[in-house]
Amino acid sequence: MSGAVPLFRRCFGTDPQVGWRAPGRVNLIGEHTDYNDGYVLPIALSLGVTVALARNGSDRLRLVSAQHGQDVATVALDALEPGALSDWTAYPAGVVWQLRRSGLDVGRHGGGLDIAVDGDLPGGAGLSSSAALECAAAMALDELLHLGLTRPQVAAHARAAEHDFVGMPCGVMDQYASLLCTQGHALFLDTRTMTTEQVPLDFAAAGLHLQLIDTRAPHRLVEGHYAERRRSCAEAAAALGVPALRDIDRAALGGALARLSDATARRRTRHVVTENIRVLETVRLLRDGRPDRIGPLLTASHASLRDDYEVSCPELDLAVDAALGAGALGARMTGGGFGGSVIALSVAEDADAIAAAVCEAFAEHGFAAPIRLDAHPAAGAARITVPPRR
Ligand code: GLA
């Protein structure tokens, strides 16, 4: 039983009516492409966030999290407005705000809500803990209030909550991964058409291992940098006369770069265009049953994010270099960057030596010890049963 249910009972003295768990994600490849109408290829993690909730009959939200001190925060429904909350409560409260503003009458049908949160997904590790929390809350509300939303609709609401209530101008990859990934598959998403394909992914069957390394490097000014990258991509697309950088393909890249006068815009454009190409090549190799060949694409993605998109940091670069030095077939930062996690693909026998090499390199550089996590493609959000109290 999830810790969210006993936490709920302890803090609110009643049983929750519904519970949902939503996973974090790692992106195999396709970074900073989802706000350029491009392609992404995430997998869901087995680690996630659980939300238990119930109507409370008042006009308030009461929220508690096992990871945030276990004190109950209270927010009046009428006080919900963008920027009003600056801590973890902004994510579930933002979902309530978003559903209300889109005309789904959360107030009339549900009134106030009690919400308890627990999870095993580390926050701040670039593994989408915020999207997991939004998605678990949104699925729980969908069930509680009989909203009848599809998962893509839930993803759109969760993203709108983060975008418009929290103020992080993210793309839609994280919410899609948390809701639409399936076990044993990577989710190939075209963020223009919003079409998806479940691409079978079984590294173990191919004698391979994908490890995830949380560098524990603190995110540095992530949101400002993220918004700035987003803006420069939109400006580059406008200068090139295309709706989005997705519209520049391999053949058009050279001409496009020659038309951009600004060197930074050229680098940003080159990253997005080449990253989209790398996603398509990765998907092609996986469809052909050749996961052993994707390593160089992962490593090229990292170099592009480091040199052209400039969203890496010393800890991420060191983890990638140490993993490659110890025999990884490919390695890259995953997620938004400026800290967070790295993935490294290797033959299964080399995985432990790679993890040890990364730890050793971090110790030599005086960085905090990194944490190795599980990265098997897991399922998207799922309902949890709330057992009757004994
Ligand atoms: C963050 C955002 C995603 C995506 C990645 C970079 O995780 O939430 O939408 O843009 O960064 O690929």
From TrEMBL:
SUPFAM superfamilies: GHMP Kinase, C-terminal domain, Ribosomal protein S5 domain 2-like
Domain Galactokinase N-terminal positions: 7-55
EC class (word): transferase
Listed GO MF terms: galactokinase activity
Catalytic activity: alpha-D-galactose + ATP = alpha-D-galactose 1-phosphate + ADP + H(+)
The EC number(s) this enzyme carries: 2.7.1.6
Keywords tagged on the record: ATP-binding, Carbohydrate metabolism, Cytoplasm, Galactose metabolism, Kinase, Magnesium, Metal-binding, Nucleotide-binding, Transferase
Residues reported in the UniProt entry to bind ATP: 65, 124-130
Listed PROSITE patterns: GALACTOKINASE, GHMP_KINASES_ATP
Domain GHMP kinase C-terminal intervals: 284-363
Site for Transition state stabilizer, residues: 25
InterPro entries: Galactokinase (IPR000705), Galactokinase_bac (IPR022963), Galactokinase_CS (IPR019741), GalKase_N (IPR019539), GHMP_kinase_C_dom (IPR013750), GHMP_kinase_C_sf (IPR036554), GHMP_kinase_N_dom (IPR006204), GHMP_knse_ATP-bd_CS (IPR006203)
Domain of life: Bacteria
Residues engaged in binding Mg(2+): 130, 162
Pfam family, one: GHMP_kinases_C
Signal peptide range: none
Residues of the active site: 174
Residues the entry annotates as binding substrate: 31-34, 226
Pathway: Carbohydrate metabolism; galactose metabolism
Subcellular location field: Cytoplasm
Residue ranges of every copy of the GHMP kinase N-terminal domain listed in the record: 93-180
Family listed: Belongs to the GHMP kinase family. GalK subfamily.
Biological role stated in the UniProt entry: Catalyzes the transfer of the gamma-phosphate of ATP to D-galactose to form alpha-D-galactose-1-phosphate (Gal-1-P).
Protein name: Galactokinase
Species, as recorded: Pseudonocardia hispaniensis
Gene label: galK
